[in-house]
Queue: 2 jobs
Job 1
Amino acid sequence: MNFGLTKTQQLFQQMIREFAEKEVKPLAAEVDDTERFPMETVEKMAKLGLFGIYIPKNYGGAGGDHIMYSIAVEELSRVCATTGVILSAHTSLCMSPIWEFGTEEQKQKYLPKLASGEWIGAFGLTEPNAGTDAAGQQTTAVEDGDDYILNGSKIFITYACPAHVYVFATMTDKSKGNKGITTFIVEAGTPGVSIGKKEHKLGIRGSATCELIFENCRVPKANMLGKMGEGFKVAMKTLDGGRIGIASQALGIAQGAMDETVKYTKERKQFGRSISAFQNTQFQMADLETKVQAARLLVRSAAWKQDMGQPFSADAAMCKLFAAETAMEVTTKAVQFHGGYGYTREYPVERMMRDAKITEIYEGTSEVQRMVIAAKLFK
Amino acid sequence: MKIVVCIKQVPDTTVIKINPVTGTLIRDGVPSIMNPDDKGGLEMALQLKDQYGAHVTVITMGPPQADAILREAYAMGADEAILLTGREFGGADTLATSHTIAAALKNLEYDLIIAGRQAIDGDTAQVGPQIAEHLGLPQVSYVAGLEYKDGKFLVKKETEEGYQMLEVAGPVLLTALASGFKARYMNVAGIVDAFDKPVAVWGVDKVNLPLEMLGLKGSGTRVYKSFTKGVKAAGEVHEVDAEHAVGLIVSKLKEKFII
Amino acid sequence: MNNKNVYVFAEQREGVIQPVALELIGKARDLADVLGDKVVAIFAGHNIADQANELIAYGADDVIVVDAPELKDYVTEQYTQAVYQVITAMNPDIVLFGATTIGRDLAPRLSARLEKGLTADCTKLEISDGSDPKLEARKLMMTRPAFGGNLMATIVAAKEGVQMATVRPGVMQKKEKDASRTGNIIPFTATFDASKFAVKLLETVKAEKGLVDITEAKVLVSGGRGVGNKENFEKLAALAEVIGGEVSSSRAMVDAGIMDHDRQVGQTGKTVRPDLYLACGISGAIQHLAGMEESELIIAINKDKFAPIFQVADLGIVGDANKIVPMLTERLAKEIKK
């Protein structure tokens, strides 16, 4: 048994950490403040091959593994959670289902463009009346000759605005519930697709979360991803992988808050000594550090299982549940350690606390994760 | 074009700290990195490769762990890597180091040799020019820009007043400034492949020199003593509004007769 | 072989003696006085002989003038050949070079040709007195920073013969000029092997700004990350102009492309010791402190009250430099008018 990273993974970590520090961190506060999608960072990431880390080389990817991908999301999120989720959503939610469920033609058509970053991909499941309960899908796809006509809307789509291609779920047969869901791939600019309102959010404010609207949007049958009625399975498999991405994001946010707090408490003096010298600080920080390390082990082991081709659905749920709740706890306490300064935007922990919250909500709330874990436990 | 880039693994001196109690260097947990000017030199070589096509070989002298920066060089785009290592090379100053590397380079073909201007652990800026001398090559140091035209290198050398443009045909040795060549990041696919590529390990048998010219014995200088320097006692620090701050500064300047 | 006297490579550019040459002569004077030897300047160039007396006025006893058209501009091989011939002919005990882009190009080349050691970027030079059994008397002890300024090392030559060092500009003090001093001006004829002249100097370009060497400035207004952008650096420039100083910066701003490398203070930039160093938005990494902590008066403005710069500052202001600097400029303009 080996808990360490391979040399390749270590070298990758060195690169992504430097990239995050030099290219991403300087923009983090401004991206948050202005709710701006950091397109320049996306271009830089694309150039390095970060958009197809675990996609095989014959589809334009880098041929790496899911652990590397997880490290990338963690390190980016350590300095900017917005940038972390951009990588995560693009890779886990758009490329992965195409890679896993796509026809050879679909893979050849989309993966190289997505892996090179020429195109950005988004994913849509949630609707105004269907979130945790996916069977409530109201977006419909109706067969019409060689095409399908799509109608409805998807909400909370991470960077729907700048994306070039969307993977999303529709209802093709309401009577079948979850078994009536079918997934489609639609390119931006297809007549009948439009972008709705942009959300103003508590955190990850640069991720350009928008509504996606379909009005009599006609797409060829060839754009169906997976089989008819297989959409729920596609979505659940996709979310399993996505959860490792979000767990990595939460882990990164938690680590970022730890780093800031260690630095601050060493420098900040009260009653004549550094606040890191007080046992209250030390004991609380020791507990938090332990949780962050535990979260990291859960995340890494879930990614490792995915790399090994083992079932990882419950592992993904557990790591996301634990990492997200750890991120929330760490960032909340980090703000507390910073005192009044922590409540201001002069220090990044304020942003980190706002960013952490979403990790308990999206790609399945903490409650959904508990359902997934319990389902495995009591099956 | 055949290019050889000399690179060195150094402790990241920006994170080295002094133990305030003992006054000694804290080296624990200090990461080892590719020296920044050397990385600039590798970038220079890779830019030439991108523009004109070239075979880029990197060579480093150091302990076996220096393998790490060769893998990094592969992931950035180098084609071949050599690790020059051996106990005989230990304790070398710049003179002995330059002899060793120059002797190793005699095993290779090159149109251009690139070294970083200086390494951040020693800051001497000597090894590049010394290698050039041992190999009988012309040199240009402080290189911040480069073009290749009609078989000649058009070199931009930074100086205190501005810069100079120099022309030289290969083979030549150039020392690069990190500020002139912003190094690219390692490519993800390059990282995935980096450890599958071969690193040639060369020992003293590849260096055709008498042993007394190597390592500590071959050095022209020796360290007599080393010590850490104390920091100046802190002055007054005020947390006041801008107007008050201006007043404080002006009265300090008057007190010290600056104005 | 009996090596004798303290030699200085007296750097000139376009016929102008560089300040570092005079600083080195000043230091060489101290060393030669301890040794009871002479200070000899190696003055290489073309049509420069009329300035040799200037070197004597600042403390040289002898000036070896190497005048040749090949030496009009500095090019590595031409100068290496000339200085190599002087050193092998005269057998100096010590040779000092300025740690400039010329000295740091020439000295290592010479060290390799002579097969002698060279110590770079010294900040202190002394002669051993023989009190330590580990070090014989009359040896040159060369002290220099290493590991990014975290460590100081005293280096001595390990081989017999000439001892060589480069010294950072601005570190040593030149002597008061004494025009009445007399000395010997000795012409030296170098022979050149032109077949080795592979590098051709096409042009020398002076940067539009930055004609002033920041190591020469009495007042430096220096900006770091906290100043942030070009626009804010204009504010520093305005203050520098009012107070009669120059603008310099930390490494961060050079890396960001906002400032030129020649204005960088610190371990990888320049060592400065102005009368006033006003650090604006500079946190004070040890590399930066290494380049400026010898300044006479240090005033620091930084938002972060824990910034290490405050540990070396005589006066520290916790605040926004971008806000304070324009107000200070305005106030100083009025004060100076009075």
Job 2
Amino acid sequence: MLETSVAGLIHGFGIALMPQNLLWCFIGVLVGNMIGVLPGLGVLSAVSILLPLTFGMDPVPAVLMIAGIFYGAQYGGAICSILLNLPCHPPHAVTCLDGFPLTKQGKGGVALGITIMGALFGAGFGIMQMIVLAPYIARIAYSFGAAEITTLMLFGLLAGSTLAKGSPLKGVAMTILGLLLGLVGQDINSGSGFPRFTFGLLDLDDGIELVALSLGLFGIAEFLRSVNNTPAVNTAYTNIRMRDLRPSKADMKLAAMPILRGTLIGSLCSLVPGTGPTIASFVAYAAEKKVSKTPERFGQGAIEGVAAPEASTHSSVQGDFIPTMSLGIPGDAAMALLLGALIIHGITPGPKLIVEHPDIFWGLIASFWIGNIMLVVLNVPLIGIWVKMLMVPYRFLFPSALFFICIGVFAAKNTLFDVGTTLVFGVVGYVLLLLRFEPAPMLLGFILGPRLEDNFRRALTLAHGDIGTFVERPISAVFLGLCVALLAMQFWVRFKKPRLPAPDGVPSQALE
Amino acid sequence: MTMMRRMMAGLIAVGAGLGLFALPATAQDSFPDRPIHAVIGFPAGSGADILGRYFAHALEVLAKQPVVVDNKPGATSNIAVRAVAEAKPDGYTILFVANSNMAGSRYLFKDLPFDTLKDFVPIASFAQITFVMVVGPNSPMNTLQDMTNHLKAKKESLYGYTNQTAQLASEYYKQLAGVDVKPVAYKSAGDTLRDLSDGTLDFVIMDGTFAAGQIQQGALKAIAVTTKERFPNWPNTPTIEQAGLANYDFAPWWGAYLPKGTPQPIVDKLQGLLLQIDNMKETADFLLTVGAFPTHDDSKMADARLKAELPKWEKLVKAAGIEPQ
């Protein structure tokens, strides 16, 4: 088995290193990287604009380019999260939590350096996983039905409500608020598509746009907060010297284990249908905070809080290709587009793809390696330039960022309505920040909630209304057990230890 | 959007006025002299989007003007339909849409801010999509008769669907076959594979775009297609009608529409271009790969086809017990 894989990989490098394929792979990662830096402007719109271009191309370079855009965008995605608190893509929203505080401490360059290391490691692992696991993937994907996904989401929600720094109660409150926001839109499970909380607006029938919500809650809210503190901001953020850019030995040591754990979580998430990189990065962050001996540092600029989710995103993104290529089942919309591109070229993705089209499969895998190395080479020298961007006075920087946010949000669905949504959530996010409510658990509730509901109701219909299905199915029972364990652990910690004073002495505890 | 369009129209008018001293009459002769927008009510990357983009790209080549695809997903494509209903009737905004919207939406939704019959002019209907009833690869069912017998004997059977068109096709089958099967909603056809493979779902009716590959790879078994004719790529798969259900005919199709009030010469010109694309061999080849084939219906035929289908959609929606929302 492994021998054929190695032979296949060597064949793949032969394909991927052909000048034409190398060029398209480079164009793909370059376009992806640039799109990644722009807030909101998604991989999807970029790929769909370039898709007609590929109609006339050979299938191999076409697929290499489209795939390159997809993983290339992830490299750019962390930059604005860390430097400006702007989650350009949803998977990187959680990177803001510690990345931005690091920037405020003048360690933005270090955070970016660690991000690139984590990215390369995570992606490398994801690719290896694809080589080794692709033949077995069908069984893993097929063991996750509606009941299993339901309990997994439940576990994710429980673990995620502790994302927030400060009061856990407020974290739970924000998660529930996120769940409620996730209810907005047509209820597809009811058969008639009953609209919930849409106030008769057609634009809300598909729910609130995720990009609008995350850019509003993080980017705009932070902007509103900074405009009131302009002098303080200017000196604190831009005081970066060149020698601060390189991660120190101590930083690397701190980040090593989180990168490894994040990578593992990301690769596991990519195997479960319906959990893309966004969920992977949130889970990785929550897990890192759970295992940390100093969880109070999270949210104050802990390098682990950047390393783990970034590694997780990248390994999950590479892993996402597995079900698409080996089963013909796309994990998300971007993968569906890749599938579409293959179909247009008369190639049928499915279990026989590896045998019938080895050029595509092994060529793609080899190009992942090449593309990721190109991205590292591209991005390392750029760190210095990105960080210099912060020296642009905020009165110019933030309006331009605001401009790009509006364009990006508009481009997601070509509607002005979403730009309005972003602004509304910006104001909401600002008010919440003032009251010391954290936006991250809200975003998590919003992402997981609809999947939880959708799968819960489907699991019940499939089991003819028998709620026992969640306990009877072994994988589902394991996740339920983990939920119980997690809750028990929370209570144990609460009752065992006297309450610690809040690390920065803020009055958040007093509000409880 | 309309603001931008108006500004752009203004700019172009100024440019034309300065450069060419164009007379109003030549506006129609010179059509198209600026980018055309093709509005699609599905997200970028969906099967419908890929289909739309093929035609947009081909139109761009023939019309020698850029054709920009505007994806306006949401509200079962009604946002896209509304956008075109409100657009300026000058031929520069085209709606690519399925008959489920043009014929079905009036029965599925109440208070829609447009009337699909009164607010639009058809250009052409250019593709028919094949919907196919599938089961898992190890299912003992091989024919529609097997399926009907099985469903009659079994209690609490289930079918899966991913959109209302497929739901209606399934309800139509239930009604004619006299069986009772409960619907289960799924977000994507891929999600149904797992539940089909272990027999949790008794059947799914899905569109050929996704099914084609899975059937070819042996991951799904085709029972019958919902259309009047067999699908050329699957000569051995009968239609539901041929398999024993008389009068069953359910054909989703795609058409292009303009806002009402578009000058007739422009409609005619676009009709000519689209039908020219439809007659190309590579179009037929492309459509086969996504489970569809060209239909070559001009403006009048598309209009007649739509109107003929209205009573059927009304009956189906009522029979399926779907409340208009």
